[in-house]
Amino acid sequence: MTAEGADPYLLPRMGGGSSEDASRRGRAAVVAIDGPAGAGKSTVARALAERLGFSLLDTGAIYRTLALAAVRRGVALADGAALADLAQGLPIAFDGTRVLLADEDVSVLIRAPEVSRDASTVSAHGGVRAALLDIQRRLAARGRVVVEGRDIGTVVLPDAPVKFFLTARPEVRARRRFDELVARGVAVDLDRTLAEIIDRDRRDEERAVAPLRRADDAELVDTSELDLEQVIAHMEAAARGVLDASTFRPS
Ligand code: DC
Known about the structure:
By secondary structure, this protein is an alpha/beta fold. It has helices at residues 19-25, 41-52, 60-73, 80-88, 113-122, 126-140, 152-156, 170-183, 190-206, 228-242, and strands at residues 30-34, 55-58, 92-95, 98-101, 104-105, 145-149, 162-167, 219-222. Helix content is 47%, strand content 14%. Strand 4 (98-101) and strand 5 (104-105) form a beta hairpin. Bound molecules: 2'-deoxycytidine-5'-monophosphate. The site of 2'-deoxycytidine-5'-monophosphate (DC) has 15 residues, from helix 3, helix 5 and helix 9.
């Protein structure tokens, strides 16, 4: 913990609005985007945050960083109690688009396919999810933020005024994930990517705690046949229609 109530998870470069503004407004200006891997969430969330002038919170990066830290420390991915302990004191911080683990920039490392798989495994433990809840809420508390994850609209920020659930057919999601990894120079196989996506969906949807599902008040957006630009434009208009106009004034 740091002195004077400063947030240890947020380095100065992240965040657009002041937390004072958000708490005075009562209901923080939050756009929650949930959905399975490869639905276009990251791309859409990043673009939407930019257009709204909001910051972006990628909660999957927190689970990924925990998985990386666990493997490095030799903590078994089946040991929920040990993982929850590790999550409790996880030295993670966001610095703009960079993710830091104890001051080391792990932004690229946490995108490796084995980390994707391990993140899904660690995320199934109830103790881990409980431990990471506080970090996520604190990071979102200042408002003016697009929060991307699996259970943001259902569990982490159920009061978010704008919620979307993005999805697409598994084959479409596998192709997108494959193209993305290839563009990043990661050697992958399309069939294997599809198998991994199906496997990860199953684990995320079937886990006992906070399974992946659409919140009742989240808008379902199926991006299989849509151009991501159309999706982003639609979501921007929807968010602007709901959020207070003062939210978008330059701060
Ligand atoms: O969005 P992503 O692929 O970076 O997420 C990695 C894993 O983390 C994913 O398989 C499920 C888990 N996760 C979660 O359980 N809850 C979240 N809010 C975000 C991610």
